[in-house]
Amino acid sequence: MKNLKRIFGTLLLTAVLFTSCETNDDGDIIFRPTAEDFNELKDTALENLTQNFTFNADDGNINLTSDKGVEIYINANCLTLNGNAVTGNVNLEFVELFDKGNMLVTNKPTMGTLPNGDKALLISGGEFYVNATQNGEVLETSCGFQMSIPADLTGGADNDMTLWEGRIDADGNLAWDEEEDNTGQGGVFAEGNQYYGFFQQFGWSNVDRFYNDPRPKTIILVDVPDGYDNTNSSVFISYDGEDTGLANLDTYDSNTGMFSEHYGQIPIGLECHIIFATEEGDNWKYAIKSVTIIENGVITITESEMAIATEAQLTIIINNLP
């Protein structure tokens, strides 16, 4: 019996050391996911949405078609490794995100950087990741590449769309910076039911425009249960009526235990859904709350509002929001 107790104690100590935990008012231990748990869940979602192509650089002009009908045009003669021309087989990774569900599970919201450094919601014509490698070495292109993107995937052509470059920070969060050259060989235009984009480099890119709402704006706060922060959970905002934009609250105050949209860019009176997302048992743990934004509002997420879903289930749930 003493040996059994000793073994049980060792297992419990190991669980506590490798898993974040809290205690409730009754003194019961409540386990929380680690940052590694949550990151692995998002990485898996991205891997599940990654398409892989192989082509021979010696073939010159390459035309590839994605699962959703995006045409990718690459001049393989422009591919280089450490400044040297590439020959032989090349591997291409491609990700295309057109809906809020996939944007959420991969942690790729549509938040664009304003001229003053603040961030505001973008409405997207598609988020894309393109990465060319050879034998595991990342390649560059000296003449860019092009894509033809079906506009009906995001509600039809919008001539206000421009190109944006994705920037991932040290915490793995993505924000979008507008390309300086959005004309000619560095831009995007709509013709018929297609967007035609001219991309200068591989990586994350986006066809986007800022969300436009004339109403006065405000800051909002979201209070989440103890033990959750911006390392093991995220808070998003789904604007009702917008299927291709997903905002997020990118700051967390450890003193208050609240996530914040601290830029003051949320329209007062906006009808939206606040989405809390985290990990539990290799699945998604989430809560969704329908709210109307008030000035300096505080929205509270409770443990009792949370549910468990697989990646596929949560994607459908988010895409079915109004």
Brief summary of the model shown:
The chain is mainly β. It has helices at residues 2-18, 35-48, 100-105, 311-319; strands at 20-23, 29-32, 51-56, 61-65, 71-75, 79-81, 84-85, 89-97, 111-113, 119-134, 137-138, 140-141, 145-150, 162-168, 174-178, 188-191, 194-199, 203-210, 217-223, 233-239, 247-248, 251-253, 258-267, 271-280, 283-292, 298-300, 307-309.
Provide an overview of this structure:
It is a single chain. Strands 3, 8, 9, 10, 11, 14, 15 and 18 form an 8-stranded antiparallel sheet that branches. Strands 4-5-13-17-16 form a 5-stranded antiparallel sheet, with no helix packed on it. The chain has 2 domains: 48-210, Sandwich (Chondroitinase Ac, Chain A, domain 3), CATH 2.60.220; 213-319, Immunoglobulin-like (Sandwich), CATH 2.60.40.10. It has 322 residues and is mainly β. The protein is globular. The longest helix has 17 residues, at 2-18. It has helices at 2-18, 35-48, 100-105, 311-319; strands at residues 20-23, 29-32, 51-56, 61-65, 71-75, 79-81, 84-85, 89-97, 111-113, 119-134, 137-138, 140-141, 145-150, 162-168, 174-178, 188-191, 194-199, 203-210, 217-223, 233-239, 247-248, 251-253, 258-267, 271-280, 283-292, 298-300, 307-309. It has 4 helices and 27 strands. A hairpin with a 7-residue loop joins strand 20 and strand 21.
Give the SSE layout:
Blueprint: H1 2-18, E1 20-23, E2 29-32, H2 35-48, E3 51-56, E4 61-65, E5 71-75, E6 79-81, E7 84-85, E8 89-97, H3 100-105, E9 111-113, E10 119-134, E11 137-138, E12 140-141, E13 145-150, E14 162-168, E15 174-178, E16 188-191, E17 194-199, E18 203-210, E19 217-223, E20 233-239, E21 247-248, E22 251-253, E23 258-267, E24 271-280, E25 283-292, E26 298-300, E27 307-309, H4 311-319
Parallel strand pairs: 19-26
Antiparallel strand pairs: 1-2, 3-8, 4-5, 5-13, 6-7, 6-12, 8-10, 9-10, 10-11, 10-18, 13-17, 14-15, 14-18, 16-17, 19-23, 20-21, 20-24, 22-23, 24-25, 25-27
